[in-house]
What does this fold into?
Amino acid sequence: MTKKRDDFQDIIRKDQAERKNKTWSGTFLDYLELVREDSEIYALAHSHMYNVIDGEGIVSDDEADDSARSLKLWGDHPPRIYNFFKDEFFGIEPALEKIVRYFHAASMKGEESRQVLYMMGPVGAGKSSIAEQLKRKLTEAPPIYVIDGCPIREEPLHLIPRSLRDQFNGMLDVKIEGELCPVCRYRLEHEFEGRYENFPVTTMTFSRMHRRGIAVVPPVDPNNQDTSVLIGSEDISKLDQYSEGDPRVLDLNGAFNAGNRGIVEFIEVFKNETEYLHSIITATQEKFVPAPGRHGTIYMDGVILAHSNETEWRRFKADHTNEAILDRIVTVKVPYNLRLTEEVLIYKKMLGRSGFKSHIAPHTLEIAAMFAVMSRLESTPKCDLITKMRLYNGEDVLEKGRTKKIDIQELQEDAKFEGMSGISPRFIMKAIDTALTDSADGITPIQIRDVMIRKVKEMDFADDVRKQYLELLQDTIHKAYLEILEKEITKAFVYAYEEQAETLFQNYLDHAEAYVNKTAVKDNNSREEMQPDENFLKNIEEQIAIIGSSVDGFRQEVISYLWAVGRRGKKVNYSSYEPLKEAIEKKLMESVRDISRIITKARTRDEDQQEKFGALVQNMLDRGYNEYSADIVLKYASNHLWKD
Ligand SMILES: Nc1ncnc2c1ncn2[C@@H]1O[C@H](COP(=O)(O)OP(=O)(O)OP(=O)(O)O)[C@@H](O)[C@H]1O
Ligand SMILES: [Mg+2]
It folds into this structure.
């Protein structure tokens, strides 16, 4: 027991010592020395934020996991992946890149530093989460220097009088901006008799709870657009205590005061009245906000971050009297993710944060993600929706035994608004939660699809949208799942499936290579030379309808493709080349005709069949199912795949 208590105390003591290490106090004169040693101490809000983001670095090329996929998705211009965002956000790289670019430009004091960063996107696309991430990382960043006792924690260099600014700029290698706030000005005069070098300086960490450098403004009630929310107020109780114009009556707790040096976030910004928006824009442009009462203006340095969904944005944009405001906004579209693999990662992230610990059978999240992604895609004459989804996911799609050649970038250009509507991750998470609550033993793709169908029927969608969603769930996704399930069960049924597939693959390669190069095949055991076995090759190829005159071309392609993969230093295996993988899998599936009898005839299985069934179930358990979910999907398969 005491040992355990010591553990806690150790941790607490270490943490306190570390914090103490990071704090600093001194006079303004001491602070000047610090800045002379390291001029980067002086950083405006945008610069500071950019340094925090940039400081975490980017994912380097050799860290990036799948270069072949990246090439398919992005061509020669893959987006930068920032470590700052990488564990939290999936599939919206271009939006994140644009946000970082905004901070970069603003940190160079470009026009961006005087513009609002505005994120626009459909519900649940991650706008609030991005804002959250920026704020959270600020609170974890090392402290910054502030004037001790200043209500808006201003930059100490404001103490340097105008007349000396040029000289100090040169000595410190900085470019000082901003004016002392009324409260510090008053203290300088009355407390320090103008001796600004003695003013106390200290460090400050950002805190959302204490509204230190971070302020959040929800939409303000239109009947009560009181500016004190933004700029603070005068404390009425002090008004008779101090003379008029005495800044000690100021209560600088407005959003612009609280968010000084850091971030002021406006939620659903366009729900506010235009007048109110103008004061936000002025603050951003001028970097000054009015002080309450008759106290002049206060310099303000902060990132103004706003977001809303597209409907509000459109309404606002349609009114041309808003042009002046629009011109002062950097808009970043935050669309839904459109890649299946990444969509699953979003749910895994969200599930990781919830209290649910139940079993989730393989492919469950994938089926949910399919629905979400397809609901967001625009249809195209070039291919069907599920093909588009697979292409966007960087997968190879087969057409008559060949990989389909459609340019992803072209598809994207044809569908400019893609990702701005459809099913949100929140909808899916609610469906997953419902399914998990309904079933204590775990959930399967079958249950999640049922819940999604139910929810679509309940929700208030437009008729044509509801129809389209139900079609996706009841038809497209149903079929897609049956294909997955058939493969899944075959894999579990075929003894040592992967090894068998690998053997078929190696044999195919040996024979196809010999065929193409017009050489002989060496038998592995007897070392005897023999002619390539054309019947064997055809047997595989016909699985994907490669027959007759097309076999020569196909064999050539397989060999050169795999040769290219090998040359890039990648290991080749049976799944390296999608058409061949498909052929091999179909071949293996063909070899298990009796699978149906074993699965469907639960009551009449003989001993041998019972044993095979037992092995099948065991195999499924090894592949991530539990007894319950294996039972459900096997029953489903017997009803839909192998019914006699
Ligand atoms: N691309 C994504 N990557 C990771 N998580 C995501 C992504 N898109 C959405 N999410 C997650 O979905 C949930 C909803 O997102 P969030 O609340 O940030 O959306 P929002 O755009 O602010 O929506 P609203 O317009 O309704 O306020 C969050 O848990 C968020 O982390
Ligand atoms: Mg939000």
In short: The chain has a mean pLDDT of 91. The pocket of adenosine-5'-triphosphate (ligand 1) is lined by residues 89-92, 121, 123-129, 309, 337, 346, 349-350, 425-426 (CB under 6 Å).
